[in-house]
Amino acid sequence: MDAAREELVRGNGVMELAALTRRAGLSTGALYHHFGSKNGLLAAIYDDFYQALGRAIADANLPRDADWASRERERTRLFVAHHFTDPLAAIVLNRTAGDPQLTDLEAVYLQAMSTNAADNIRSGQRAGDIPAILDADSAGAFVIGGLRHGIAQQLRLSPRPPVDQATERLWNLTAGALGLT
């Protein structure tokens, strides 16, 4: 998996199996045995990326005694930091459109993140931090989609902004969308 990630990053989203088998010291047959196909290997890499993202932004990494907005701003910072430190992030966020299997896999993760965001927004509404008039499901999808595209845009900037600056940019948009004061 590590060799495949490295090869995918080196190839800017293109992975040649011959180069991968040389790097990993495996036969093509061994790769197919473990992953079924090149797309199966790519799906495993993308799955690993999104699993790591989920761990990075998990509630356990957030301050317990902070108010809703402060906690979610920190989650945004962790989201940005994860994407800025993983060289695969720019590829994951920009490559899936040409591959139906990866598009389907990403859609599953985006739906799960949107559902989690909606549940989180509902908790902010119950606490009185977010206006009750907002539809939490739509707001969750809006926030996750906005963060996904916003971080992809930040990753394309040269020079790339520092994590705190990118966080502030994205948090201001999220806070505005949620009607936070």
Question: TL;DR of this structure?
Answer:
With about 180 residues, the protein is an all-alpha fold. It has helices at about 1-10, 15-25, 30-35, 40-55, 70-85, 90-95, 100-125, 135-155, 165-175. It starts with a helix and ends with a helix.
- State the total count of DSSP E strands: 0
> Strand fraction band?
under 5%
- CATH fold label of the largest domain: Tetracycline Repressor, domain 2
Task: Outline the biggest β-sheet.
Answer: none
**Helix run count:** 9
Order of helices and strands: HHHHHHHHH
Which architecture of the largest domain per CATH? Orthogonal Bundle
Mean pLDDT: 91
Radius of gyration based on Cα positions: 18 Å
Structural class: mainly alpha
Uncertain residue segments:
none
- Which bin fits the share of residues in helices? over 70%
Distance between the termini: 44 Å
Identify the CATH class of the largest domain: Mainly Alpha
How would you sum up the global shape?
A: elongated
Task: Please provide a written account of the structure.
This protein is an all-alpha fold and about 180 residues long. It folds into 2 domains: about 1-35; about 45-175, Tetracycline Repressor, domain 2, CATH 1.10.357.10. Helices cover about 75% and strands about 0% of the residues. The protein has helices spanning about 1-10, 15-25, 30-35, 40-55, 70-85, 90-95, 100-125, 135-155, 165-175. Helix 3 (about 30-35) crosses helix 4 (about 40-55), helix 4 (about 40-55) runs parallel beside helix 7 and helix 7 (about 100-125) packs across helix 8 (about 135-155). The protein is elongated and about 60 Å long. InterPro entries: Homeodomain-like_sf, HTH-type_TetR-like_transc_reg, HTH_TetR, Tet_transcr_reg_TetR-rel_C_sf. This is TetR family transcriptional regulator. GO terms for molecular function: DNA-binding transcription factor activity; transcription cis-regulatory region binding.
